[in-house]
């Protein structure tokens, strides 16, 4: 089966349909997403496209590339002051997800045939991790696409060497340009897959003649041309603080110790893979004997050299988050798809290996059933309600999952894969269309921001938040938001009483009132919102107050 442009267009459109549900109704998710959105919004408001800031603090975690993309999307589709609309900031992630899945289909088809490409694209598109990341305005899906372009250029040069054909200069420009864009997105992170893959192949094959096809003698100048202008600008503006913080603290600091309570032992990514790459995780594990039997074939060797070094690096560093190994997922999807479409099932000879595969299959099945009912149960436990949309998704996916179990029992792995991919689409649509938009624990910041908008005394009013410091509140309420403790909040309110309101939890009201009385002010309540702070599980009873001079 040979894929044509019509196949790739179909893959892109289907992927777009998979990632669209709920996109416009989702409130800011996670803690990172509103940080990216707020920094991008402030970039538009200030006109400063060099020095990235979150509220009144510099955000020196990575270069400005992702903020440029999100600010541009917001300017084109949302307008710079429409803060209650989050979806324009998510457009770069949407485009990146669709492009990454389509490019995976191309690579799979190039290496192992058209059916492999289609299955690989489907496994990547419905994987849990990409499903989540592709809907958020964070950097990870865009970085995935960039690294995929880097690996595509490497693979093209490698295959051209194997087949004794010329490698065009465009492939070299793609490699070095993508390396430069990766540096503008996430700094040195792109160097790990970009250099580790050819280095691993050099060690295994004891030669790297093929890498010369990428014109390294002058290609590095293209990378430098991409990153150097902004590096010079931010170096001058920040007086070197950006490099010491982003490289020294953020990048190198993650190696020795876990940052932001994300320190975990080696093996974390291997354990999380069952969930993060579901439903494709089982099909990769079942296909491991077939993959190993062919590990000396050049195409398989390249994919393994793409996966293994990147994976080992992020298992070794102390700070671990699931999305760190996301750039390996296209290669994993291609190998899993090849075991379904091209290679016959190979059973391991050792009894312990068969036992482990059986246990993994059991865990995968339990997880599949958990996915089916999770949305309805979560809404019942959180909101004490049965949502018809969540129930429809559950009852729609359950027969597909059960049928997939039966097909696996009959050893019809390819058919089982397609069926469970369909089940995953139904489950994800239910989660993002009905479950997440109706979860009250995600609505505290939007309701607090709406209350503030109803009572703000000035056009450029300031919201001082004492007890609630979620980035989503800062994004929804605007860049004038102040996240302060009680003494600092009282000081600010006393000095800016005419155009400031304060949001404070019931437990901190007495302390704030006492501090305000000392400064000759009382507090007038305008309204309250209650809910759960999802980041720490604390129940909050937030009151909105205005300072009034006594």
TrEMBL record:
Full protein name: Glycosyltransferase family 39 protein
Domain of life: Bacteria
Membrane-protein topology: Multi-pass membrane protein
Localization: Cell membrane
Primary subcellular site in the record, as a coarse category: membrane
Domain Glycosyltransferase RgtA/B/C/D-like residues, every copy: 63-231
Segments crossing the lipid bilayer: 103-130, 142-159, 171-197, 218-242, 268-288, 300-318, 324-345, 357-382, 388-409, 416-436
Organism: Asaia spathodeae
InterPro entries listed in its UniProt record: LipidA_mod_glycosyltrf_83 (IPR050297), RgtA/B/C-like (IPR038731)
PANTHER family for this protein: MANNOSYLTRANSFERASE YKCB-RELATED (PTHR33908), UNDECAPRENYL PHOSPHATE-ALPHA-4-AMINO-4-DEOXY-L-ARABINOSE ARABINOSYL TRANSFERASE (PTHR33908:SF3)
Keyword list, A-Z: Cell membrane, Glycosyltransferase, Membrane, Transferase, Transmembrane, Transmembrane helix
């Amino acid at each position: 089966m040979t894929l044509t442009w019509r196949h790739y267009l179909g893959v892109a459109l289907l992927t777009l349909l998979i990632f669209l549900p709920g996109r416009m109704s989702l409130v800011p998710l996670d803690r990172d997403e509103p940080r990216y959105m707020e920094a991008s919004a402030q970039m538009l408001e200030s006109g400063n496209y060099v020095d990235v800031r979150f509220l009144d603090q510099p955000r020196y975690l990575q270069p400005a590339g992702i903020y440029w993309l999100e600010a541009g999307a917001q300017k084109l589709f949302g307008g710079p002051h429409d803060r209650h609309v989050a979806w324009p900031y998510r457009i770069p992630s949407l485009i990146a997800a669709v492009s990454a899945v389509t490019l995976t289909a191309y690579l799979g088809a190039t290496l192992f045939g058209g059916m492999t490409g289609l299955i690989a694209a489907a496994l990547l598109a419905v994987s849990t991790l990409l499903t989540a990341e592709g809907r958020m305005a964070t950097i990870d899906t865009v970085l995935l696409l960039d690294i995929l372009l880097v690996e595509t250029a490497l693979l093209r040069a490698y295959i051209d060497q194997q087949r004794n054909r010329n490698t065009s200069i465009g492939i070299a420009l793609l490699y070095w340009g993508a390396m430069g864009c990766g540096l503008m997105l996430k700094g040195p992170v792109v160097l790990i897959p970009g250099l580790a893959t050819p280095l691993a192949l050099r060690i295994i094959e004891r030669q790297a003649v093929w890498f010369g096809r990428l014109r390294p003698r002058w290609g590095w100048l293209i990378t430098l041309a991409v990153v150097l202008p902004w590096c010079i600008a931010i170096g001058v503006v920040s007086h070197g603080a950006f490099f010491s913080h982003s490289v020294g603290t953020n990048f190198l600091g993650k190696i020795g110790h876990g940052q932001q309570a994300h320190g975990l032992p080696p093996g974390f990514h291997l354990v999380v893979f069952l969930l993060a790459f579901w439903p494709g995780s089982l099909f990769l594990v079942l296909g491991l004997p077939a993959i190993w039997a062919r590990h000396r074939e050049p195409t398989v060797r390249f994919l393994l050299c793409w996966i293994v070094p990147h994976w080992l690096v992020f298992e070794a560093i102390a700070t671990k988050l699931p999305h760190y190994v996301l750039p390996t997922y296209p290669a994993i999807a291609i190998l899993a798809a090849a075991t379904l479409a091209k290679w016959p099932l190979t059973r391991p000879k050792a009894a312990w290996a068969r036992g482990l595969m059986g246990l993994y299959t059991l865990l995968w099945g339990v997880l599949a059933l958990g996915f089916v009912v999770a949305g309805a149960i979560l809404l019942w436990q959180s909101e004490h309600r049965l949502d018809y949309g969540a129930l429809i998704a559950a009852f729609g996916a359950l027969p597909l999952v059960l049928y997939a179990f039966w097909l696996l029992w009959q050893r019809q792995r390819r058919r089982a894969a397609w069926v469970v991919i369909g089940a995953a689409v139904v489950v994800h649509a239910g989660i993002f269309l009905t479950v997440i938009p109706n979860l009250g624990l995600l609505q505290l910041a939007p309701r607090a921001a709406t209350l503030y908008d109803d009572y703000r005394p000035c056009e450029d009013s300031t919201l001082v938040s004492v007890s609630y410091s979620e980035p989503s509140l800062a994004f929804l309420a605007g860049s004038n938001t102040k996240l302060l403790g009680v003494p600092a909040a009282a000081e600010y309110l006393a000095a800016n009483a005419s155009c400031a309101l304060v949001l404070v939890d019931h437990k901190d009201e007495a302390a704030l009132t006492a501090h305000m009385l000392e400064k000759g002010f009382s507090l007038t309540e305008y309204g309250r919102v209650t809910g759960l702070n999802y980041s720490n599980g604390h129940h909050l009873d937030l009151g909105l107050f205005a300072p009034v001079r006594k």
